[in-house]
Every structure is written in C-alpha cells, then in structure tokens.
Amino acid sequence: MEKFIERICEDQPSCKKAFKEEWGALRFTVGDKIFALLGKNNQNDLIVTLKCAPDKANEYRQEFLSIMPGYYMNNRHWNSILLKNCDVPKPLLKQMIIDSYNLVYKGLSMKQKEQLRTKSLPLNKK
C-alpha cells in the first residue's frame, strides 16, 4: 500500500517528494505546499494524511474505520488514513490523493501556478 500511495502522489504534476527528518515522514508537495504526508502516528502505525473538503472529510470518517481526523493537522481540512487493515478501497484512496493535490494546487497563487507551468514545459532546442 505504501508504494501504491507513493506512485499516485509522484504521478501528480510538479510533485516533489522529500523526507522530513523531524517528522519522520515523506512529504509530497506542489508549489512548496503539502498535499500528502506518509509517516507514522504515535502508535507507530503507518498513515497517510491528505487534504480534504470539510464536508467530504466528515463523510469519509463516518464511512470508513481507517479514516480519522488529520494527525497533527487541521482536523477540519485533513484526514489521516490508517494503512494497517485499511478498509478504504484503492480506487477511492487514489481519488482522495488526487483530490488533495487539486485542493492544494487550487490554493496556490497565480504566480506559483505560472512558475509550475513554466517548469513543466519541454525545453525548446534550436
């Protein structure tokens, strides 16, 4: 499941992946803003933390035992998903990662979005 999550995160445009030593977690960012964290909670269980629209965040928490308020994040906008015995289907988890990315990307400034678009353009060879 860990590799599946990493692959989906890395597939997002302009995604950067870095290990944050102090947190003991992999951070996936777009425009220097986190859209996914992959690490462990205080029980040493592997979790992924994703941004989510507040209405969907609560809906997911009620529907799936593996989904809880975001670990060390704003509980209104973030969910953490316990990966051990996870009851969230992979297609939904993939969509949650994509939704998290889109929410974070949408919140970037126009300047940041333009910089990301410019960086992703192929180089013109003359």
From TrEMBL:
Pfam families in the cross-refs: YjbR (PF04237)
GO MF annotation, one: DNA binding
Entry keyword DNA-binding: yes
Assigned keywords, A-Z: DNA-binding
InterPro entries the record matches: YjbR (IPR007351), YjbR-like_sf (IPR038056), YjbR/MT2646/Rv2570-like (IPR058532)
Coiled-coil annotated residue ranges, if any: none
Protein name, as recorded: MmcQ/YjbR family DNA-binding protein
Species for this entry: Salipaludibacillus agaradhaerens (Bacillus agaradhaerens)
